[in-house]
Design goal:
- The protein is of the alpha+beta class and 121 residues long.
- It has one domain: Nuclear Transport Factor 2, Chain: A (Roll), CATH 3.10.450.50.
- It has 2 helices and 7 strands, in the order αββαβββββ.
- Strand 5 and strand 6 form a beta hairpin.
- The model has no long low-confidence stretch (mean pLDDT 96).
Length: 121
């Protein structure tokens, strides 16, 4: 889990390597972003994150696992993150909490369901 979370934070977000999301999300994953519809499928999820990173200015997304539990062939992770954005007006940060349901795909643990929302600091 830590390696996949690091891959998302370091390579996908910081280095803007959107294609690396193939190693993060399952093929039939879904994300539930705040105040938005559910986004189904890895290709649609890649488009979402490309927009947030390239157009929205997301530059930093370190993930901190608070709790993780393996439940048979799935796992559940609860965590927090400090999302940093760089825009024309400067830098802004949003604290979020998240839940990820993990599933094994081709021998690797990947994010299968991903939901997050903001929280007070």
């Amino acid at each position: 889990m830590q390696a996949t979370n690091r891959l998302f934070s370091e390579e996908v977000v910081k280095e803007k390597q959107i294609a690396k999301l193939d190693s993060v999300y399952t093929e039939d994953a879904a994300i539930l972003p705040p105040d938005a519809p559910i986004i189904w499928g890895r290709e649609n999820i890649k488009q979402f994150w490309a927009s947030v990173i390239q157009e929205g200015g997301l530059t930093h997304a370190p993930l901190t696992t608070v709790e993780a539990e393996v439940l048979g062939d799935a796992a559940c992770e609860v965590g927090t993150a400090e999302l940093r954005f760089q825009g024309p007006g400067g830098t802004s940060q949003i604290a979020v909490k998240y839940v990820v349901v993990w599933k094994q795909e081709a021998g690797s643990w990947k994010w299968h369901r991903d939901i997050w929302n903001s929280m007070p600091r």
